[in-house]
Amino acid sequence: MNNLNNGYRGNITISNRAILKIAGKAIQEAEEVKALMEGKTKRKNKDDFYKAIDLQINGGELAVHIFPIFVLGTPLHQLAQLLQQKIKSSLEILTGLKVSQVNVTVVGIIPEQI
User: Which family does it belong to (predicted)?
Assistant: First the structure.
């Protein structure tokens, strides 16, 4: 859990699960992401993407690490950068927390379905 203390009326706490759900929703919006790896588990259900996100909180800053499988066809570096931007902006806008890193390790590609 991450506590935000603005000193006004008390504490605000955002659970790790809520943070992961926000990041997962940002990933779901990218149609080119077909799965996320969580160890040896491949999560294909987009509603479960949040379960495969590695979140680290250090001094009020978030670091996110994901391991996506993309559809072949779009340059991988562009997709990875798009995900970084979507995750960072979604988390910062919706939680008010600073995102220091969004690490994307592409672990696979699959051919485009015709």
Answer: Belongs to the asp23 family.
Closest by CA to 68, choosing from 110, 24, 37, 102, is 37
For residue 52, what are the contacts with CB-CB under 8 A and spacing of at least 6?
36, 37, 38, 41, 43, 66, 67
**3 state DSSP class of 6:** coil
Question: pLDDT digits over 68-93, tens only?
Answer: 999 998 899 999 999 999 999 999 99
CATH topology of domain 19-110: Alpha-Beta Plaits (3.30.70)
Query: What pLDDT digit, counting tens, does each position of 11-54 carry?
Result: 888 999 999 999 999 999 999 999 999 989 999 999 999 999 99
CA dihedral 36, 33, 19, 57 (to 10 degrees): 60
65 Cβ neighbours under 8 A, 6+ residues apart: 53, 54, 56, 101, 102, 103, 104, 105
